[in-house]
Design goal:
This protein has 132 residues and is of the alpha+beta class. The chain has 1 helix and 7 strands. It has one domain. The protein is elongated, with a radius of gyration of 20 Å. 17% of the residues lie in helices and 29% in strands.
């Protein structure tokens, strides 16, 4: 080794597997480190609006970091619960978008709504899905 950078590189090369093993075995304690914009509420109380057509809402992405192992995950509230960070459970397709969305959404005629709910029932979101 000729300099500090070479020393650091050689130290890191052996550590990558160890770090991955530690992060896999960790009992994570996540917290939000990059926040998201508050999701819009649908016309159904306690159900939020997610994907409209093919577009995810701006500001729906957030970052969480484990305080025990420094694992970083980038998530979206369209697919993950912003309260417990679990993946949302995908439910049946609802044919009538008007059940959750106002008249301004009629332009997406080929889309239905697929509800996604947190396994802990803390969060529900209505995402558009192509229905043809």
């Amino acid at each position: 080794m000729t300099n500090r950078v070479d020393y650091i590189k050689s130290s890191i090369e052996g550590m990558e597997k160890t770090i991955a093993d530690l992060q896999t075995a960790c009992e994570h304690k996540f917290s939000i480190t990059k926040s998201f914009d508050e999701p819009k509420i649908s016309i159904v109380n306690s159900v939020y609006l997610g994907i409209e057509g093919n577009n995810r809402p701006k500001g729906s992405d957030f970052t969480i970091t484990c305080s025990k192992c420094s694992l970083v995950k980038n998530l979206s509230y369209c697919f993950s619960c912003p309260r417990c960070f679990e993946d949302l459970k995908v439910e049946d397709l609802v044919n009538w978008r008007s059940d959750y969305k106002e008249d301004r959404y009629r332009r997406f005629g080929y889309y239905g709504v697929r509800m996604s709910t947190c396994p802990n029932r803390d969060f529900s979101i209505a995402n558009d899905e192509f229905d043809q």
